[in-house]
Amino acid sequence: MLQLFHRTIRPLWVGMRTMSSSGAGNNEYFYQTDFSHASVVLGETTASMQMDQKLQSLNQDQYAPHNFVNNRMERMNLKGLKGGKVELHRNLETGVAEIKLSYPEKANALSGSMMIELADVIQDLEGWDEGKAVILYGDPEGVNFCAGADVNSVKSLGAKKGGLMCLFMQNALSRLQRLPMISVAAVQGNAIGGGAELTTACDFRVMCPDASIQFVQAKMGLSPGWGGGTRLVRIVGPRTAVKLLTSAQSLSADEAAGLGLSDFTVAESDEICNQTHDWLKQYTSPPTDIVRAMKTLVRHASELPLDQALQREKHVFTSLWGGPLQQAAFKNFSAK
């Protein structure tokens, strides 16, 4: 049974108070991290660099809650930068979801409103306890996976607002990466700039034979800003990352596979979603709790210091030990 979800974003207000500063009002927002005891107040006029410094002072997970950043983006009027849509399909039988980026006339580039819709879809998946995996792909009518940010949509943003957009997308893609589900970017056509960054937020990348991935930011007078530069280093290593980022080289499916950036090449371009589902079955065949536990364990191991990762591994293990899946498996083993 396939269900389609296309959400309309509504304002998500966080608590705020108004303070007087030199006779001018200054709205301050209470920024709550993932841990209830760690917080920092961000002012309306706080530069993104100052925000970074405050965040770096926290020795905790530093992903902004969805409601805070979503509200922040409303203040930047990103919701008013219309165009395209992001759709969520959830298959309740297989536990595999699909996120479709749809802006065909712009090669599936992300408008401001699509950025917020993407974050909202990810929040939906965070609450889907039956999910095993998610596939991210571009609308086939747009020919491409994603052409990054829609330039016409975001070109009016100044430096401070650009920094806030960076914070918003880093947060959204970090949450995508941290989902307790296996994530796959199904790349048809080109994944350019921010589109290339989107692919790095997924556990796997599956490509069509004629698809390409290109970090084109250097040609745009920019660097990656959605977390893709950092993730690229972790995927291919620093030397290769420097080459790809400075040269803006377009990688074919074979070249990406050779660098470890692509995990599988489908046979037919027009069947990428179906073939990605088929390829994914080898990893989603275990029960849901097992798939989610394994993904959680791997995420902790890749993000945390060894002692903390080992502690989290113990928590994952003990959550399964003695459960019905383990008892049934041991019973079957003893019967052989």
TrEMBL record:
Q: Which GO terms describe its cellular component?
A: cytosol
Mainly resides where?
Answer: cytoplasm
Is-annotated flag, keyword rRNA processing? no
Q: Name one GO molecular function term.
A: methyl/ethyl malonyl-CoA decarboxylase activity
State the CDD domains in the record.
crotonase-like
Purpose of the protein: Decarboxylates ethylmalonyl-CoA, a potentially toxic metabolite, to form butyryl-CoA, suggesting it might be involved in metabolite proofreading. Acts preferentially on (S)-ethylmalonyl-CoA but also has some activity on the (R)-isomer. Also has methylmalonyl-CoA decarboxylase activity at lower level.
Query: So what family is this one in?
Result: Belongs to the enoyl-CoA hydratase/isomerase family.
Q: What is this protein called?
A: Ethylmalonyl-CoA decarboxylase
**Organism annotation:** Holothuria leucospilota (Black long sea cucumber)
